[in-house]
Amino acid sequence: MISKRTRNWILALLFLGWSLGNLDRYIMNYAVLSITEDLHLSASSTGLLLSSFFAGYAIMQMPGGWLADRFGPRKVLLAAVILWSIFTGLTGAAWSLASMVMIRFLFGIGEGGFQPASSKIISLTFPKAERARAMSVMLSSGGIIALIIPIASAGLLTTIGWRTTFVIMGASGVIIAALYWFFIKPPKSSSEGSITQTAVSGQKGIFSSLLKTPMVWNLVVAYFCIYAVNWGLAAWIPTYLVKTRGLDLVSLGWVQTIPGITMLAGIYLGGYILDKLPKGRERLAGGFACACIGILLYLMFTASNVPTFITYQTIVNLFIAFVMTLLPAIVLKQLPTSVTGTAMGIANTGGQLAGFITPMAIGFIVDAFNGSFYAAFWMLIGFSIVCIGALLTINNKKGDLLKQNEEEALALEA
């Protein structure tokens, strides 16, 4: 195992890269207000634009995870940062809905390998007892960006404009790629990885073994549901508050910093709690959190005024962040290191499909209901209920072929 100082340095760089990726995704939810006017888009077209990134991102999850397991996470990480930097910059050059959708789709393809590869690096460099907290640090970048982006976007979009903003972010990615090239060098193998890889190779392959593991399918469904809620809110709350609740862009920026604080707190707190919870209790904690999410979503859309709405949004972000930290922690702590890249890619495909489907679905729903968001909120409540079922039915002892293979490999070596 590498030194603690080196582990923390690698984690800091992963955090930096993930922050830039989240910056692009979150700022689009605010930039789309100007893009909609410049490109004359309807709510349905806006939903398609917001979803296009996630289409490419979802498609690349499983290949990205497999490539990280097969060729090493460092190569995949570098390729992901370079490609997403190119297409982030090109976002500022889009001239029509079709060009914007294609650029954002290719941007999603480029970034798709980052999370599986970075998760693989965490599993190689951190002991099991520290992986949930390490993952929470990386994921906390989303909370930090969600905290600062409302104010930052108001300043950037009203001064230099959305086109220049995306060009600058693309150039920043090139710098991060250079840092990764020089400083991220995780171990190439581990004893756990070599044992499990030998066992898995006797099967039909990593994918078939993982797809026969019931826990993986529970995770796919849970990922889909929680990210449907997260990206449904993140993509449309700015538009909802401006068009339905009457806020201007600057006021919107300030009020949305409050939910960002609890998103960040939920991620850090989640990582700490998950490393302390006894094995098997994660699903109960996750089910409880999803129940709270459903209740709070109902209270949000029935709130009589903006301060009450923001109060409920602030609390719901705490529980969303906890579940979003819980899911990758289950992968990192309960599956062998040699397949964490592929497993994370499979599970996270569900989350990114939700990112593709939900913003677009909400756009069509809003058009169908003459600008009303009520039906969209009910859809998100339904996802939180399904997520409860997916988490509570996780059974680590039933059909876990990977762990059986690992035990058989150990017995043969003995």
Automatic annotation (TrEMBL):
Report the InterPro entries cross-referenced here: MFS (IPR011701), MFS_dom (IPR020846), MFS_Na/Anion_cotransporter (IPR050382), MFS_trans_sf (IPR036259), Sugar_P_transporter (IPR000849)
Q: Which UniProt keywords apply?
A: Cell membrane, Membrane, Transmembrane, Transmembrane helix, Transport
On whether S-adenosyl-L-methionine is a keyword of this UniProt record, the answer is: no
Q: Where in the cell is it found?
A: Cell membrane
What is the recorded membrane topology of this protein? Multi-pass membrane protein
Under the heading Pfam families, the entry gives: MFS_1 (PF07690)
Is Transmembrane helix a UniProt keyword of this protein?
A: yes
Which terms in the GO cellular component ontology are assigned?
Answer: plasma membrane
Q: Which Gene3D superfamilies match?
A: MFS general substrate transporter like domains
GO MF entry, a single one? transmembrane transporter activity
Which residues belong to any copy of the Major facilitator superfamily (MFS) profile domain? 10-399
Stretches that traverse the bilayer: 39-59, 71-87, 135-160, 166-184, 216-237, 249-272, 284-303, 309-332, 344-366, 372-394
> What is the name of the protein in this document?
MFS transporter
The lineage, from the top, is: Bacteria, Bacillati, Bacillota, Bacilli, Bacillales
